Amino acid sequence: MSLTDEIERLSKVESSGGVLSLYVSVDPTISYRRGHEVAAANSGLREVERSLGDASLRSAFARERDKALELLEREWTAESRAMAIFTSQPASLSKVIPLNVRVPTQANFGARPKIAPLARVADENERHCVVVVSKEDARLFIISMGEVEDERALSDSVPGRHDQGGWSQARFQRHHDFHVREHLKRALEELDTLAAMLPFKRLIVAGPEEVTTEFLALLPRTFSDRLIGVVPCSMSAGRAEVMAAVEPTIRARERREEEALLLKISELADAGGKAVLGVEATLSAIGEGRVHELAVAEGISSSGRECGNCGHLDASNIDLCPRCGTRIDQVDDILERAIERVYAQGGRVEVMFGDARESLLARGGVGALLRY
């Protein structure tokens, strides 16, 4: 199950008995110290415990805290960098999600899982495939959350170039080119198999220009539509070198996609189309279940209110729901709750960084494309 699927599933969990969300992250230079992850977790858990005044809440929290720490000690390994743990015994929830990227260590205890940190991880770390090709070899990498998730390799025997001139050289060259082409076709077959096993959103091709040009000419549309770049890379490059070669292409594409989404939202919203900008209009659309894709500036937060009766979200300091008149509940971070609601409604979330973040902050920090 992909991280996005996990987020959507968690977004639908709710329990009056309480849900504990625990994110644990350690410095990779000291993560070999067994027990360091537990110390980090306890730091976040103590902050939550101090905030609970009600005895029944403290009892429920203690139950889930013990379960979360048990899961942490059982699942953490010397290679672990970060982990997200969600427990709620009343809701039969016990979920551990290993993360290969660092997240702030934190804990939350409430009626729903705290999924906003996962949403940010998922948004910045979509699965990519990198194909490094030469005339005889091919290596395929699936990259997810800053790490190589899977790697495949294949080799073919390709006759070398012929040094003699004339007709014999031309015939041998055609023979050589035929075998190179067959090798690249085999690489495509392996790519197709890998895509079925580990679906990816974006493709990067790497290698010598002569070979990558021929490989690109063979790409079917199902893969050419996912292509985001071609980069030079040696077939002998290690995993770290491959990651370094493709990282700028991945990040540049993400920033361009964010800017394109924001431009689309802005143009539609300004024209009175199916888009909104600003906290008030966006929260209203989420409360009505109309949001298809939510854009949120990274790091933005705001307190607010949520109506447990009709689902209305509001950033104002009010006591009664303006839609149904029911007493409305306070929410520590209404934008985090907005992210959870969009996932629960089957929508998408895009966290904006860089120039797109600054532009979105100038328009209220949030916006959305609407279903209707």
CATH architecture of the largest domain, by name, is 2-Layer Sandwich
CATH class of the largest domain: Alpha Beta
The CATH homologous superfamily of the largest domain is called eRF1 domain 1
Radius of gyration: 25 Å
Helix percent reads 40-55%
Taking the sheet with the most strands, its summary is: 5 strands, mixed
What's the count of strands? 16
Instruction: Specify the number of helices.
Output: 11
The order of strands across the largest sheet is 7-6-5-8-9
Q: Which fold does the CATH topology of the largest domain refer to?
A: Translation, Eukaryotic Peptide Chain Release Factor Subunit 1, Chain A
Which segments are poorly predicted (pLDDT under 50) over 5 or more consecutive residues?
A: none
The computed structural class is alpha+beta
- N-to-C SSE string, H for helix and E for strand: HEHHEEEHEEEHEHHEHEHEEEEHEHE
Tally of individual domains: 3
Distance between the termini: 30 Å
Q: What is the mean pLDDT?
A: 90
Query: Globular, elongated, flat, extended or rod-shaped: what is the shape?
Result: globular
Proportion of beta-strand residues? 15-25%
